Amino acid sequence: MERKNVAGNSAKHSAAGHGFSSLPEGCIADVLALTSPRDVCRMSAVASVFLSAAESDALWERFLPADYREIIARSSESSSWRHFSSKKELYFSLCDYPLLIDEGKKSFWLEKRSGKKCYMLASRELTIIWGDTPGYWEWTSLPESRFPEVAYLQAVCWFEIRGKINTCMLSPRTNYAAYLVFHAGRSHGFEDVPVESSIEIVGNETTTRVIYLARYRSEEQAEHDDLEYECVSIEDVRSWINDNLTQLYSSQEPGKALLGLEDVKTWMNSNVMKLFSSQENEEPTSSIRSDLPYPKKREDSWFEIELGEFFIEGGEDTELEITLMEVKAGHWKDGLIVEGIEIRPKGDL
């Protein structure tokens, strides 16, 4: 009796497998489209019956946003995005290589697991109080940034940054979070100072939270940094590099240098961000409160801090505003480098 049951079950499984594999590729693709890109890749890796459908353009077209063509057209690089061998290749390119759109003021990509839309608003797309006033903020370029310019804080008492995006640009039925992307290695005035962030969707309740952009430093360390690095900007460092390297190389015996002067200048200028970020502490010490919301380091060498989260139901066509503000401490703040505000589905990518 036991052998009969085993044989019967085996026959049923075989028949079921044979029946599924006999379905048209389009039907299998329709079933796979009800899952997620990650699930499709997993299933095609373990079951050959899914392999052909998992490669089809019809399937991956459904994982791409409905308006992906319009979004790509907003990029100055749109012509180079027309030559993909498949929709699957296009999908993963949009996941791995953020696309600059709207004159380089926004960055767009897809979350690889789900295909949900992600954006970063460049610092030039943000409203920064005193942002265009020399002496308060400086606009500079960094090779580490995806954008042509980033904002470098020279000195302000009133620190306020606002970013806006229309909710129709985001994926429906998705819980999003917004993050400030920045460097604070040589900053002053932010150490354990509460900064208020808020997210408001017109017609909905505003959510607020308190965050911290930098950790506390000992008085000795703060005094050392103030004396050594006060009023030194990125451009000051680059100017020093160019002037002093020229003088150094001119004093060397001809033919003895292992690298050319321009090669060394290029390398040092491209790595100046590392100099400014070398003082950032990634882990709290025993004297620092570890329960406070501090920034975390990203894979791209920048830091981020969550500003809040919100849910997009879908079908809305309204404005979402993200605000970051510190105006209560009453002291000067400087040294922060702002790349932008990132908006992505809640959770680690």
Automatic annotation (TrEMBL):
<dbReference type="InterPro" id="IPR036047">
    <property type="entry name" value="F-box-like_dom_sf"/>
</dbReference>
<dbReference type="Pfam" id="PF14299">
    <property type="entry name" value="PP2"/>
</dbReference>
<dbReference type="InterPro" id="IPR001810">
    <property type="entry name" value="F-box_dom"/>
</dbReference>
<dbReference type="InterPro" id="IPR025886">
    <property type="entry name" value="PP2-like"/>
</dbReference>
<feature type="domain" description="F-box">
    <location>
        <begin position="17"/>
        <end position="63"/>
    </location>
</feature>
<protein>
    <submittedName>
        <fullName>F-box protein PP2-B1</fullName>
    </submittedName>
</protein>
